[in-house]
Amino acid sequence: MIIESERTGAASGQTYEVRNPSTGEVVDQVPSGGPEDVDRAAQAAERAQKKWGKIAPAERARILHRAAEHMLGKLEEIAPILTAEQGKTILESRIEAQRFGENIAWFADLADKIHGQYVTLPDARTYGLVLRRPIGVTGAIVPWNFPLTLAANKVAPAIAAGNCAVLKPSETTPLSTLACVEALIEGGLPEGVVNVVLGHGSGPAMIEHPLIRKIALTGSTPTGRKVMAAAAPQLKKVVLELGGSDPCIVLEDADLDEAAKAISVGRFFNCGQACLAIKRLYVQEGVFDELLEKIIARARKLKPGDGMDKSSRIGPMHSEQQRAEVEAQVQDALARGARVVFGGDRPQGEGYANGWFINPTILVDVSDESRMVTEEVFGPALPVMRIKDLDQALERANNSPFGLGSSIWTGSMAAAHRAVQELDAGYTWVNALQIAHDELPFGGTKQSGFGKEHGLEAFHEYTEQKAVVYGSL
Ligand code: NAD
C-alpha cells in the first residue's frame, strides 16, 4: 500500500496472492488492508489536504503536470504489470496506462480555472459571492476491468480541485495502480496527496470513515446498492458508476463496414469486460445477414492468447468466475432458442490450459427474456437481434434496467436525431466508435448509477459551493 508516500504493509501483517489470468501463476504478494490501514490513510490525506488545498492553483497545476509527465515516461514499465495482473493485451495496457497520465494532465489544466459567481442582492449595499471549495478527503473505489483509467477518473479531478485522496483498487489488480501512484510521487506529487489502500476490508471501512467526505465507486450494480446504503448513515456524498447493457442500433442506410468495425471494438475490446460496451445489437432486417458476416469476419481475426504475446488480439477473461458467468448466460440463451453463429466455446491447445480463455462469441435468435438481454454480459459474447424499424429498435433498446451507453448507425439525420432524443442513457454515439472522451461528462441513467466522471462536470463534483454575503460595513 502507499500511505504518505511510503510503501507499507497492512497493520494485520496479512497478505494475499495476485495471480496472472493467462497462466494462473502468482505475480506478487500484496498486503490485505483493513479499517486500521484506511484510518492511517485517511489521517494522512487529511493532514496533506491542509497544505495541498492552500497551494496557489497555478502551482498545483504545475506539480500535477510534472508528476503526470514523469508517470508517462514509465509506460513501458507499467503496461506489463497491468497485463500480468489483469490479463489484457499489452497494447490495451499501454493505451490504458497512457490514459491515466493524460487524465491527470487534463484535470491539472483546470486547477487554476475554478470560477465562482458574483450575485447582486435586494439590498444594493450588500452583495453575494458563490465560491467553489475542495471537499477535503475523497475516496475512490475501483474495479478490476480498467484499474488505471477508472482510478484516474476519480483521483485526477479530486486532486486538481485541491482535495487529497484515498484510493482502493480491486483486490485482483492492485499492482499497476501502485506503480502509477509511485511514479506520480517520484515525479513530485507531495506526500499524502494520493494514498493507496488494498484488501477486501478496505472498501467498507472507507465508506464508514468520517474523514472521507465523498466516495466515488465504479463497480457492479449490486455493489452500488450496498455502498449507497452504507453511506446513508453519514449522508456521505456518493458517485456511482455501475453496470451497463449498451444497445447499438444499425439501420439499413448505415455504413456497414464502419459499423462492423465499431461493433467489433465496442464488444470485444478488453475481452468484453467493459462497462461501456456494445452488449445488445439491434439490426434492421434488410442488412442483418450482411452486417453479421462482416462482424464474424472481424471476430475471426481476434486470436485469443496471453496478453504478453504480441500475436494475441484478445486476452483471457479476468477470472474463472467471470468466464463461468458469461458461459452460463450463453447457455441460458441457447436453452431459449438462440443459435451460436461464431465461437461459443473455449480455445483449445497448450497455451490455453491454465488461463481463463474464451472465444469471441456471437449469437442470433436471442429472445428478449434471455439473461444476455436482461442482464449485463461482462465478457466477449454478443447477442444480435433482428428489428423491423427504428420504432421497434428504440423500444427494445430502452427495455433494460441499465442506461449507461447507447449508439446508432444510420445515414439519416432524422433517425439519428430521434435516437439521440429517445435513447435513455448517459451517452449516445452516432456513427462513431464507442469511446468515452475526457472532455465529455460520463455517467449513467437508471440502474447504471448517477454522478459524472470526465469533463468539467467531474471537476465540479469535487468542489463544494459556498454562498457568501458581504454587508455594507
Ligand atoms: P465489484 O462491484 O465487485 O467491485 C468494485 C470495487 O468495489 C472493488 O474495488 C471492490 O473491492 C469494491 N467493493 C465491493 N463490495 C464493496 C462494499 N460492500 N463496500 C465497498 N467497496 C466494495 O465490481 P467488479 O467485478 O470489480 O467490476 C465489474 C463491474 O464494474 C461491472 O458490473 C461493470 O459494469 C462495472 N463497471 C462500471 C463502469 C462505469 O463507469 N459505469 C466502469 C467499469 C466497470
TrEMBL record:
Residues 1-37 are annotated as: Disordered. Residues 12-468 form the Aldehyde dehydrogenase domain. Keywords: Oxidoreductase. InterPro entries: Ald_DH/histidinol_DH, Ald_DH_C, Ald_DH_CS_CYS, Ald_DH_N, Aldehyde_DH_dom. Residues 11-23 have a biased composition (Polar residues). GO terms for molecular function: oxidoreductase activity, acting on the aldehyde or oxo group of donors, NAD or NADP as acceptor. Gene3D superfamilies: Aldehyde Dehydrogenase, Chain A, domain 1 (3.40.605.10), Aldehyde Dehydrogenase, Chain A, domain 2 (3.40.309.10). The keyword Cell inner membrane does not apply. It holds the Pfam family Aldedh. Belongs to the aldehyde dehydrogenase family. This is Aldehyde dehydrogenase. It comes from Candidatus Dormiibacter inghamiae.
